[in-house]
Write a structure and sequence with these properties.
Blueprint lengths: L2 H82 L8 H27 L9 H14 L4 E6 L8 H22 L3 E9 L2 E8 L6 H6 L3 H12 L3 E6 L5 E7 L1
Helix pairs in contact: 1-2, 3-4, 4-6
Organism: Taibaiella chishuiensis
GO molecular function, one term: phosphorelay sensor kinase activity
InterPro entries: HATPase_C_sf, HATPase_dom, Sensor_HK_TwoCompSys, Sig_transdc_His_kin_sub3_dim/P
Length: 253
């Protein structure tokens, strides 16, 4: 084999190796691209599935809320009216005491139904955050059990769209905890800006609690609050002591 044949063989082999290398790179790029597309598709599917589950859950909660308010609430009110018309004077003392205790239970039942119907009303994920917050305060006032106020500073910046529903759920969780545990009659909500961050402060005049003891065995409501704050990288502070009410502060950017 002469020199020219050797050169041709070497060049041919080099060309083959180069083509093989280019082909391998092309396959790798296509594989990565397809893998990324599949991952994006899977992520989109999971997000869509999650949205569907949330929509179904919201519809169920809305239906239950409506049933509680329209049907059970009305029945409870009628029972309470009938109990109030009973004259306990001619009855034996024991019977009168039982009737009075039943009246107290009915008042409590009516109160709980009102609270549940408020906490389960339907949400629109596309609704502006402040509008949802104002509606929540309005619903709370309609129960007649609380005096709730909302103050919004001019410099308050609403949470970004991807955080809006999560922040609102945190506000709703605080309100639900206030309703269930605080025995409060007033709730003050303040939205303002501090150190380039948006701040939500929720303060009640309830019985308060020992935060040191609560941290060792937190309720599901407090656990939900901390988990949601961690998910959106928000600050969460709970200040309370027995007999002095509770203040919850949520801070986000």
């Amino acid at each position: 084999m002469n020199n020219s044949d050797q050169i041709i063989s070497i060049l041919s082999f080099a060309l083959f190796v180069m083509l093989l290398f280019i082909f391998s790179i092309s396959l790798a790029v296509r594989y990565r691209k397809r893998k990324k597309e599949n991952e994006l598709l899977q992520t989109s599917y999971l997000l869509e599935l999650q949205n569907v589950h949330l929509e179904i859950k919201e519809e169920i909660l809305h239906h239950v809320s409506r049933e509680l308010h329209d049907n059970l609430g009305q029945i409870a009110s009628l029972i309470k009216i009938n109990l109030n018309t009973i004259n306990t004077e001619p009855l034996p003392p024991e019977t009168g005491e039982k009737i009075e205790e039943t009246r107290k239970l009915m008042r409590r039942l009516t109160r709980d139904i009102k609270i549940l119907s408020v906490g389960m009303h339907k949400l629109n994920p596309d609704q502006p955050f402040l509008e949802m917050a104002r509606n929540e305060i309005s619903q709370l006032n309609k129960t007649g059990l609380f005096t709730a106020t909302l103050r919004v500073a001019n410099d308050f910046a609403e949470p970004q769209q991807e955080k809006s529903l999560m922040v609102f759920r945190m506000v709703q969780e605080v309100i639900n905890n206030t309703i269930k545990h605080s025995q409060a009659t007033e709730l003050k909500a303040s939205f303002f800006c501090k150190d380039d961050a948006s701040v939500i402060e929720l303060q009640d005049n309830g019985i308060g609690f020992d935060t040191g003891k609560a941290s060792s065995g937190e309720s599901s409501g407090l656990v939900n609050l901390r988990n949601r704050a961690r998910l959106i990288n928000a600050g969460l502070k709970i200040a309370s002591k027995p007999g002095a009410g509770t203040t919850v502060t949520i801070q986000f950017t």
